[in-house]
Design goal:
The chain has 111 residues and is an all-beta fold. It contains no helices and 11 strands.
């Protein structure tokens, strides 16, 4: 059974940092084409970042320069380093891989 489990969310002040993790089990995933999405209160789920092949990465304009996506294929884990957090980053963050989704982890940024 494939599972993606996010962790690392929490409450942080604006300007602070958090590191999210997404641990995959049930099959081997490559961090290439694994991504992060988020759903803010009252809004639709939106794209945050995706890890591509050969170390490439793509980010939404709203997080570019502040967030960094990375992966450790040996650990079957995807990460999202979030720096300079803003109140508007408050959301539930989900990881996705090949159509599988995790349950999400809450990130709350206080202003």
């Amino acid at each position: 059974q494939v599972q993606l489990v996010e962790s690392g969310g929490g409450l942080v002040q604006a300007g602070g940092s958090l590191r999210l993790s997404c641990a995959a089990s049930g099959r081997t995933f490559s961090s290439a084409n694994m991504g992060w999405y988020r759903r803010a209160p009252g809004k639709e789920r939106e794209f945050v970042a995706i890890s591509g092949y050969l170390g490439t990465a793509y980010y939404s304009e709203s997080v570019k320069g502040r967030f960094t996506i990375s992966g450790d294929d040996a650990k079957n884990t995807l990460y999202l380093q979030m720096d300079s957090l803003k109140a508007r980053d408050t959301a539930i963050y989900y990881c996705e891989a090949l159509g599988y989704w995790g349950q999400g982890t809450q990130v709350t940024v206080s202003s």
